[in-house]
Amino acid sequence: MRMKSCSTCKSQRQPHRFLEPKEAVWVKEHLKEKFTGTYMICLAPLDDGAKQCRNLRTSWAEKHFKEPLRLPEQE
Q1: Beta carbons within 10 angstroms of residue 41's beta carbon
Q2: pTM for the whole thing?
């Protein structure tokens, strides 16, 4: 797990991890991307801690998208 900044959480140090296989499939389909190995997801807890931020970024760019893009909650 890496500590990265998050534009949604407005913090310079939040835990992030690279995508799991099911998440990578969603990104490939949603963004029409072929390679998803650089995308990371924010794991910071929201409000009561029951949900995660799940904001998507690349390993080098905090604001990779015009508007914040969050991965849907895992099933």
Answers
A1: 21
A2: 0.84
